[in-house]
Amino acid sequence: MNIDHKYRQFLPESRRVVVKIGTRVIAQRTGRPDPVRLNSLVAQIATLRRRGIEVVVVTSGAVGAGMEALGIRERPTVVSDLQMCAAVGQARLMTAYTKLFMAHKIRIGQVLLTHDDFDHRVRNANARRTLEHLLRAGVVPIINENDVVADEELKAEFSFGDNDFLAALVVKLIRADLLVILSTVDGVLRMDGARRRRLPCIDKIGPEVYRLVNPGASALSKGGMDSKLRSAQIAARAGCSVVIGNGRRNNTLTDILAGKDVGTLIPGTSL
User: Fold this and answer.
1) According to the 3-state scheme, what is the secondary structure of 48-106?
2) What is the CA radius of gyration of the chain?
3) Fewer CB within 10 Å, N side or C side of the chain?
4) 54, β-bridge pairs
5) pTM, whole model, 2 decimals?
6) Nearest Cα to Cα of residue 58 among 152, 181, 155
């Protein structure tokens, strides 16, 4: 049995999953939420729910959606402009999610978080309690960074990185079994001559792994593979397995939970 299959065989046993959806996964080039891609992801989450799996969504895309609504082409650099875009875009994003989940008779709840909510003991406990109550009630929490008040996170180096870091913190908060980070590439890629090949499994994230990737961000997002690996490392150290996969590929989410060879798996340290 190869090391990849050894770990993937446990993925179908996951009962609590955090799904992080990147900006470029669900946004058209203008920043407007892509209804076709969103519909596919929501349908996959509904399938997991029917299997009794609890799902928490950490979504990006609010700033991009707001940029499109306000006719702004380049990602703003002034914090107040970013906050304005986030406020407008978050409403659009939640409207899209609500309509699509309602088609599957699934209720959703909006949860907006900042660094302070994890660093402050009382806020941390309140956030955990709210998420647990939502899950017990059969509600799918839709989490995003509260950009309207998180001025430092929008511009500083310790930002959530297109919500990759936020997803890792949520994993620790609710003790999730699996974190799925959906991007626009098939996983962690390495150069093999002139071709880029997917790494099926990374049993340990070290300096050599970071040298394989080039941190970067699009005009709409602020993430990159480096951000995803650092977040995966945090989650894995907490005992949660992580799969980085292509959210624009059909059935990526359900295939991962079926234990198929999709994306790059980083096993939790407890495995």
Assistant:
1) HHHCCCEEEEEECCHHHHHHHHHCCCCCCCCHHHHHHHHHHHHHHHHHHHHHHHHCCCC
2) 17
3) N
4) 16
5) 0.91
6) 181
Instruction: Say how far apart CA 121 and CA 69 lie, in whole Å.
Output: 37
In the chain, the N- to C-terminal Cα span, in Å, equals: 15
Q: Which CATH superfamily is domain 3-266 in?
A: Acetylglutamate kinase-like (3.40.1160.10)
Domain ranges in the chain?
3-266
Residue 50, judged by CB atoms within 10 A of its CB (0-12, 13-18, 19+), counts as: exposed
Q: Which two tokens stand for residue 182?
A: 């959906």
CA dist 90 and 60 (Å) reads 9
Three-state SS at 171: helix
